[in-house]
């Protein structure tokens, strides 16, 4: 069967249809990226009125700054934990939703709601839950003999923002995992059950391998989310503290640029952050995708 081709009545119409999306891409993505790269080559005053070309000096200063190197380590720990936790919980909840029977629709709706919550609101919810004085979660931990105070303990503060960020992303992962599970042919699973394969064997040998394309897509999305979209969570809960325990790369860009008014260093950090995320994405597509079977 021959594929049909769409023929536009004029040569100008396709470009007019693409123009709005191209304009958004240029104005909100390409232009700011170019401005950041351009600003990283200059030392600027606090208001951006005077600047002096310094070449790569801003980048050199970054990698001699212990605070920035610490932020890199914190970011990789934070993003890895958020991606793993949100993916694992999303998959478990998707498996449970598939077996919910008649209540599956209600179950899915209730699980999807957290994705509609703004990051700052999700952060405040967890901030109250783990408040050392009145938080119900903090009281529960104290009952188990765990002293919780994320205002003073850097490890606990990092755990708090990881939990809040992962909770915000679980619903997104649930939707895609559930769609992937529904697309798996049921005769394959039924045949494995007839052959004597238990639930864990069926999951490891059939279900999870067939979910590999979905898992790979979500891995890229979740790492990008952890690097960029978790700013609101950190800002509303810990503000990068205590000390620098929860200062990730994207939050350090804000602190140096908007609070420290070091525009050159902030621009250089934006460029480095963009390069890191682009490199991670390229490595994922280059090496991990080879093990994915479509």
From TrEMBL:
Keyword annotations of the record: Cell inner membrane, Cell membrane, Membrane, Transmembrane, Transmembrane helix, Transport
A biological-process GO annotation: transmembrane transport
Pfam families named in the record: BPD_transp_1
One GO CC annotation: plasma membrane
UniProt protein name: sn-glycerol-3-phosphate transport system permease protein UgpA
Transmembrane segments: 12-31, 76-97, 109-130, 150-167, 203-228, 263-283
Function: Part of the ABC transporter complex UgpBAEC involved in sn-glycerol-3-phosphate (G3P) import. Probably responsible for the translocation of the substrate across the membrane.
Domain ABC transmembrane type-1 span(s) in chain numbering: 72-284
Primary residence: membrane
Similarity comment: Belongs to the binding-protein-dependent transport system permease family.
Record-linked NCBIfam families: PRK10561.1
The species this protein was found in: Azorhizobium oxalatiphilum
Subcellular location: Cell inner membrane; Cell membrane
Membrane topology qualifier: Multi-pass membrane protein
Self-association state and partner proteins as the record states: The complex is composed of two ATP-binding proteins (UgpC), two transmembrane proteins (UgpA and UgpE) and a solute-binding protein (UgpB).
InterPro entries in the record: MetI-like (IPR000515), MetI-like_sf (IPR035906), UgpAE/MalFG_permease (IPR050809)
């Amino acid at each position: 069967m021959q594929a049909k081709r769409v023929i536009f009545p004029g040569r100008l119409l396709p470009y007019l249809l693409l123009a709005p999306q191209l304009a958004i891409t240029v104005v909100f993505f390409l232009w700011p990226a170019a401005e950041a790269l351009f600003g990283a080559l200059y030392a600027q005053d606090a208001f951006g009125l005077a600047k002096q070309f310094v070449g790569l000096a801003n980048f050199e200063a970054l990698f001699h700054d212990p605070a920035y190197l610490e932020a890199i380590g914190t970011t990789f720990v934070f993003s890895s934990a958020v991606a793993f936790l949100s993916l694992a919980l999303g998959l478990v909840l998707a498996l449970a939703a598939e077996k919910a029977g008649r209540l599956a629709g209600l179950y899915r709706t209730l699980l999807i709601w957290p994705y509609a919550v703004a990051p700052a609101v999700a952060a405040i919810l967890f901030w109250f839950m783990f408040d050392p004085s009145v938080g119900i979660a903090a009281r529960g931990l104290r009952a188990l003999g765990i002293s919780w105070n994320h205002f003073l303990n850097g490890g606990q503060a990092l755990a708090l923002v990881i939990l809040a960020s992962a909770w915000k992303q679980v619903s997104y992962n649930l939707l895609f995992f559930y769609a992937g599970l529904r697309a798996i042919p049921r005769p394959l699973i039924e045949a494995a059950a007839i052959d004597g394969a238990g639930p864990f064997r069926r999951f490891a040998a059939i279900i999870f391998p067939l979910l590999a394309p979905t898992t790979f897509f979500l891995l890229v999305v979740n790492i990008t989310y952890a690097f960029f979209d978790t700013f609101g969570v950190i800002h509303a809960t810990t503000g990068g503290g205590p000390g620098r325990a929860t200062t990730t790369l994207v939050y350090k860009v804000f602190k140096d640029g908007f609070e420290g008014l070091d525009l050159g260093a902030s621009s250089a950090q934006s460029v480095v952050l963009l390069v890191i995320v682009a490199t991670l994405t390229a490595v994922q597509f280059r090496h991990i995708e080879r093990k994915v079977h479509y």
